[in-house]
Design a protein that fits this description.
Elements (H helix, E strand, L loop, with lengths): L2 H37 L5 H15 L4 H41 L3 H6 L4 E11 L4 E13 L6 E6 L20 H4 L2 E7 L2 E3 L2 E11 L3 E15 L2 E12 L3 E15 L2 E12 L4 E15 L2 E12 L5 E16 L3 E12 L6 E14 L1
Antiparallel strand pairs: 1-2, 1-15, 2-3, 3-4, 4-6, 5-6, 6-7, 7-8, 8-9, 9-10, 10-11, 11-12, 12-13, 13-14, 14-15
Length: 362
């Protein structure tokens, strides 16, 4: 072996000893302590001091590791706290904007979610093609009953407007028959509870028409934020004595585009035991805040059914301009729409709706 090779071998041996020697000492010490504990030998004071000194020597260097981990954790926390704060701010701002839009456009969600008394009076004038003019009205009433054991609210709803594609009531945007439109609804709703992350509101009442039709309805709702999206999910099973069980499912995605723009995707499905089919809709909307008293929404929707196979029955394009003309309870609306129906070979049907609404709520 050459001198240079022998020299490298010596260096490698020294390096190996330096690396293994501390672990050998620690292993030997651990074995000795284990043997002592198993034999239950009582050490005298002098031996105890020796063990303490060995403890200090062995673990003094290892105490640096927890400190390093703490410093690393603090750095990680401070590094990600900026992203956590930004994510929380964006999520809360999207949620707040979505709620404000729902409240301003007085959707059904605002009516059902309000915790106090509520009264809405709305008068509509609809101008259709061929000079057809229609006058409709809508009343929504909810009264808290404070003297009951549980917080209950008495509610009343008059027939839906003859324009069934009202974008401000996206959970009720499936066309209704003339018989259904002629019925008022009177019932009692309980305050919401919560279980497994879902809020629920049960209600019971009567559909008032040519005959009295009792009903029971449960509304389950869940709301959460994901990245830059605010997500709302409603499930509404209900039962009518005349038609049996039905089920409404509604999924809403909201995203804040700018400080004054909100994008919304609303997916709706309704199943009825009476027809044994699904009624479906998908609506995309863009809400634009002009000022504190003015807002505008653009929307496009497609509607369909599942039988005999899934097919489209209607398309809808339109916009909704809404303005507060006195404080926060008197509003006017203008809604031009273009409706394409399958039964009319998807021929464009134009209409313009003007409405005045007064709202009292607490």
């Amino acid at each position: 072996m050459s001198y240079l090779g022998f020299r490298k071998l010596i260096y490698f041996a020294i390096l190996l000893v330096n690396m293994l020697f501390p672990f050998a000492i620690q292993a030997e010490f651990e074995n000795s302590v284990s043997d002592v504990s198993e034999q239950e030998i009582i050490l005298d004071t002098e031996d105890t001091n020796i063990v303490d000194e060995l403890d200090d020597d062995i673990y003094s260097d290892e105490e640096i590791c927890p400190e390093d981990e703490t410093v690393s954790t603090e750095i990680d926390d401070s590094f990600f706290s900026f992203f956590d704060a930004s994510q929380e701010y964006v999520s809360s701002s999207v949620e707040s904007m979505a709620r404000n839009m729902d409240e301003f456009f007085t959707s059904n969600r605002d009516f059902y979610d309000t915790s106090g008394s509520y009264l809405s009076l709305k008068q509509n004038v609809i101008f259709r093609e061929k000079g057809i003019i229609e006058y409709t009205s809508k009343v929504k009433f909810k009264l808290r009953l404070p003297n009951t054991e549980k917080n209950l609210k008495l509610f009343f709803e008059s027939p839906e407007d003859k324009n069934p594609y009202d974008i401000s009531t996206q959970t009720e945007n499936i066309p209704t028959t003339s018989e259904e439109e002629a019925n008022n609804i009177l019932g009692v709703q309980a305050d919401s509870g919560e279980r497994f992350g879902w809020k629920y509101k049960p209600s019971i009442g009567l559909k008032l028409g040519s005959t009295i039709d009792p009903f029971v309805r449960f509304r389950f709702s869940k709301e959460f934020n994901f990245a830059k999206w605010n997500i709302k999910w409603d499930e509404v099973p209900y039962w009518y004595d005349s038609s049996g069980w039905a089920f409404d499912s509604y999924l809403e995605l909201n995203r804040k585009i700018r400080e004054d723009n909100l994008f919304r995707s609303a997916t709706f499905a309704r199943w009825k035991n009476e027809t044994d089919q699904f009624e479906l809709s998908q609506v995309f909307s863009m809400f634009h805040t002009i000022s504190k008293k003015k807002a505008l929404s653009y929307y496009a929707g497609v509607y369909g059914v599942s039988e005999p196979n899934v097919h489209t029955t209607h398309f809808l394009l339109g916009l909704n301009y809404r303005q507060s003309i006195h404080k926060d309870y008197l509003f006017i609306e203008v809604k031009p729409q273009i409706l394409y129906q399958r039964i009319n070979d998807f021929h464009a049907e134009h209409s313009v709706l003007f409405s005045v609404e007064i709202i009292f709520k607490k």
